[in-house]
Amino acid sequence: MLDIAEEVFAEQGYRAASMDDIAERVGVSKPMLYEYFGSKDGLLSACATRIRTDLYDATQEAMAEADSPKDVLWRGLLAYFTFMERHSQAMAVIAQEPMMIPAATADAIEATRRQQTGLTAGLLAAFAPAATPRAVEAFSEIIIGACERVSLWLARHPEVTAEEAARYVMDFSWQGLHVHMGSPPEA
Q1: At a CB cut-off of 8 Å and minimum separation 6, what does 180 contact?
Q2: Residue 51 CB-half CA count within 13 A
Q3: What local confidence, expressed as pLDDT, does residue 7 receive?
Q4: pLDDT at residue 19, rounded to an integer
Q5: Are 79 and 86 in contact (CB under 8 A)?
Q6: Which of 148, 158, 6, 181 is nearest to 77 (CA)?
């Protein structure tokens, strides 16, 4: 149900998407959708919540395999942009229709940002013990904000791969972070 709903929201936008169309594509009755999700708002919120969970799992798993601070950042960025590439249309709808989405979905999106920032901050703090907690928090917000903006940019540039996007953010971020990590940047 959520896969189809995400697809319909991406194709038609939140406002134009109808529960009738989603139910028909899923192969269930419209009342069944309402039984599960309560409303179209609830359905969109469920999509955003699933994206948050799946994104966290993907980035955490990728970073767990890293063997250095630079590798952690690279693997996390690559996992993020690879995930966003798979969900690009739905994420673009959510980002481009912020005034149209329900409060619960906006809250779920903000929870996703906080979750990714927390994951990033935890790793930065471990790898940069000399950095102040405020600096770690700021750096994490910068990285997550950059990822979000580059994801929106990717929607306008489908020729750019997830790996290229990760490289742009990596190159930019590492230049600022390396001084806190104790290793010089690579050319």
Answers
A1: 124, 128, 130, 131, 135, 139
A2: 32
A3: 87
A4: 96
A5: no
A6: 148
